[in-house]
Design brief:
six-stranded parallel sheet; elongated; Rossmann fold; alpha/beta; 2 domains
Length: about 375
């Protein structure tokens, strides 16, 4: 009996010891929800990090000489960094070769996505081929990149509609649907190397052409076709020089100028300078209706002073936000969101596009559009 009891006690001790060992080596039990949470954190981290480093997004902007590109670049950089990305923001001083070199450097650095506002949309074919060879997606920003199959997406505002709004504004303010006229108008177009310039022009002419044909609108200079009225590089000084010539040739005798179609604010500033030098702005020689685009600070002040009539407002915060959303989708291996698959043919392909909606600001609504929205402070528009 004693022998049986000793055997049982020995077995109990052995089993107890084995139980302790099992308890020590047992893997940590799953905590409800913990495994899913860790996976979610990993997936989110993968969005902004690659091999432990931040995802790099290259942002190539054309120039810092215009206010709108400074705002575009700053908004893009801020919103990318807020999402956890590293942004390599470069400005090329409107030099095509400089922009190509900057993009090449971004590719060498191993950027994951390129966002490019091109200087000349037809000069980037070779460097975009390099991007494609390195599996880098390309988003054309507000200017379509031409003649390359390696443009994956395009983000911009509805540029044809920009011109339509400008044309409709002229029609409304001149009362062309009620008045017989004729009213004198001069036409300006943007830089011929910017694909958007033709959309602005075509949009405006889709509205104005019928009034020109009917004689309600008269062009004293006779200059109407795009190549004649285009201003290379969107330069204010070139617009001023052309306006000087138009005034000398067609308005030196006191003829009335009723409207000037200007596609953007940099041209409008040059046009206004020319008009000022020629004595416009007096009671007997009022400013014509002058359109614009971008709502640059000097132009908004000009609107407040009654020199410029309107400017198309393209909120760069909205466009930057949409591009960051597109970048996010591409980093995660998804298709970027678009709302247009038919309009923008770059000569090699129809580029899937997202078009934001433009609106216009003038002296009557600029506070609501520009100040109450937080785009400008009241102090920004002090003279």
């Amino acid at each position: 009996m004693k022998k049986l009891i000793a055997i049982i006690l020995s077995m109990f001790i052995i089993l107890s010891f084995m139980g302790c060992n099992t308890s020590v080596e047992e893997p940590e039990q799953n905590i409800p929800g913990k495994e899913m949470s860790d996976q979610d954190d990993q997936d989110q981290g993968d969005t902004q990090e690659k091999d432990g480093e931040e995802r790099l997004i290259g942002v190539a902007m054309p120039t810092q000489s215009l206010q709108r590109w400074n705002q575009d670049g700053a908004n893009m950089k801020a919103q990318l960094e807020a999402k956890g990305y590293k942004a390599d923001l470069q400005y090329a001083d409107n030099n095509v070769n400089t922009q190509i070199q900057q993009i090449e450097n971004m590719i060498t650095k191993g950027c994951d996505v390129l966002v490019i506002a091109s200087i000349d949309g037809s000069t980037l074919t070779d460097v975009l081929k390099q991007a494609a060879e390195n599996d880098i997606k390309v988003i054309a920003y507000d200017r379509l990149i031409m003649n390359s199959p390696h443009v994956d997406y395009y983000a911009t505002f509805d540029n044809f509609k920009v011109g339509v709004i400008q044309g409709e504004y002229i029609v409304e303010k001149l009362g062309l649907d009620e008045e017989d006229g004729p009213f004198n108008i001069e036409l300006f177009a943007g830089s011929p190397d910017d694909n958007n310039a033709r959309f602005f022009y075509d949009g405006a002419m889709s509205v104005l052409e019928s009034y020109i044909e009917s004689g309600k609108l008269n062009i004293p200079s006779g200059q109407k076709d795009f190549s004649t009225i285009a201003i290379q590089g969107w330069e204010s000084s070139n617009a001023q020089a052309r306006m000087d010539n138009l005034i000398t040739a067609n308005y030196a005798g006191g003829e009335k100028l009723d409207a000037v179609l200007s596609p953007n604010d940099s041209l409008a500033i040059g046009i206004i300078a020319s008009l000022n030098n020629s004595g416009f702005g007096e009671e007997d020689k009022p400013y014509p209706i002058i359109t614009g685009q971008d709502c640059d600070k000097p132009n908004v002040i000009a609107m407040i002073n009654g020199q410029q009539s309107m400017s198309i407002f393209k909120d760069t915060r909205t466009l930057a936000s949409k591009v960051v959303e597109m970048v996010d989708a591409l980093i995660q291996g998804n298709e970027a969101p678009v709302n247009d698959n038919v309009t923008y043919d770059n000569g090699e392909k129809v580029v899937p596009s997202y078009l934001c909606e433009p609106v216009y600001a003038d002296a009557n609504n600029y506070r609501e559009i520009l100040i109450e929205s937080g785009y400008y402070e009241e102090s920004d528009l002090e003279q």
